[in-house]
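Supplementary Text 2. Reproducibility record for the structural model of the 69-residue chain.

All settings were left at their defaults, and a single model was retained for analysis rather than an ensemble. We include the record here because the model underlies the residue-level annotations in Supplementary Table 4.
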Amino acid sequence: MAIVKVIEVIASSDKSIDDAVRKAVKEAAKSVRNIDSVYVKDIKAHVKNGEISTFGVICKISFRVGDDD
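Retained model, structure tokens:
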């Protein structure tokens, strides 16, 4: 039986929400193996001079531990 752990990762992008989520997963993958899924918990956007300047996400990333299959 595999055990699944969940971590929260915060990421941002000046391009899009999609890009911010991809950055969160890419950064987590540097130190975590066996990532199975990502759940976007929260989305926000920062505004400067009436325009969106950056997108931010809080993601829950799930990964298996103790099972190398």
